[in-house]
Queue: 3 jobs
Job 1
Amino acid sequence: MPDKRAWESERLGDDENPDIITHKAPNEENIFFRNVCEGNLDAIAQNCRERRFLSNDGVGCLSRNPLTNLQRHFVITAALLARNCAVHGLEHERSFRLSDFYINKLDDCKTVDDVRMLHDRMVLDYTRRMRLLNRNFTTSKPVNDCLNYIYIHINDRLTIEEIADAVHVSPAYLSRVFKKEVGTAVSSYIREKKVDAAANLLIYSDYDIVDIAMRLGFSSQSHFIQTFKKYTGLTPKKYRDSNGRF
């Protein structure tokens, strides 16, 4: 039977032991979840680029095994994402099912970097959903209708004239109000959504690059590659190779 005093020392931590991790104040964590709930993609993307999820600074040790430790932190993050996003308006069942989906994907993670990549996909997924949700609460009906039309017809070769006709406003008016409320031009938003869809297909499907370009309505494979690299910094092939598949 283990020595009770030794067990208590390990359980509570030893203030004089330099190897004991001091838990950081909740400020950074609060800022992180606030950025997700506000749909702040720039801040969350920067967090992912800095690989903050892998930082041991002020983070408790939940296992001596690095992979198991990170997986347990992943589950905690997923649960907190589901709860915070549900509180801030994401449909409750959708939010928690999304958390369950990503936690189940942990079974496919064999390395620390696998967990890190899955974490980044999860937090960006939640952030994009919250961004769209927040936009739908603050944008006008023509812009909301435009966003929905783009979502439904993302595989088509969309034009501002076609979308304006579908939402019953002039192209000039739609261009002006969309830029004012969304912060980007309609054409730029369409390209961004097509790149998002392409990124998912590259990771979660076996379609080759030509098929993905055709499915998403790009005029050519070269146009697709050029557009994808502009938004992600990688060619489709390098993106698929670096992100793997789960």
Job 2
Amino acid sequence: MDSEKKWYMFDGPVDAVWIENMNTVLDDNKKLCLSSGEIIKLTDVMTMMFEVQDLAVASPATVSRCGMVYLEPSILGLQPFTECWLRRVPEALRAFAEQLDSLFARFLQDSVAFVRTSVKEVITSLDSNLTCSLLKLMDCFFKPYVRKEGERPPPQDKLERLKELIEPWFFFSLVWSVGGTGDAASCQRFNW
């Protein structure tokens, strides 16, 4: 039998029915009863971890069976989001990871702080949502450089232009994500 530790990660919202079905695996008998009727016995080397936003629909019985680690979103900051995103940047753009990291460090947190203090938001947002929106917009610019299996790499002249495009792409994405939640007057203030 394999004695190497195994972690099973469940990431997502807590569904009341789903989490109640997890009670059997959280009990001392450690049996996972699937809706198909199949029963899976967890061994001592198996650990289950749940990463959830809140426990609003989880019963006290379920919560009491789990060890809890709570992280206030403000404690994490925005760097874990950008670091994770930079690790999966397309190969053609990896040479610019340091430049991108520098742009994030210089402008992202200050821009979000400006939104929090000087912008009247039309739609309330979280710092993490603004950051994820920025990263998704950056992904749109990078999409043509994502090489699929069997495809030729982008032409050299296209790759050479990247150095001059990274910064404008970043600022466009920053303005339309972090700066895009404010009313008209706030948008003018954000347009420094």
Job 3
Amino acid sequence: MQVYNVVKFRVTSGKEANFIDAHRDGKAKWPGLERGFIIQTGEQTFCLIGEWPSQEALVAARPAMIKTLDSFRAFLEDQGEGRGITDAVSGTVVLDL
């Protein structure tokens, strides 16, 4: 069953291009990732959406995703309320619209 992960980021003002560039040119082609998107949800807020073949594939890719995160961690702001610099969720598809 398909699995998606969604990660919300708040990027430091003026560092938006750096954040996007950190994902270009194959830097976010993690093992098992079928498709991925970054959407801008506000002036400084973005969400990364990843499509995976299984939860196991997503879990196996975490070290590579963390390595990518480490490359732009300095451009992120704490989101408050105990969420830290990322707000991540994942789950299986329950309805294909």
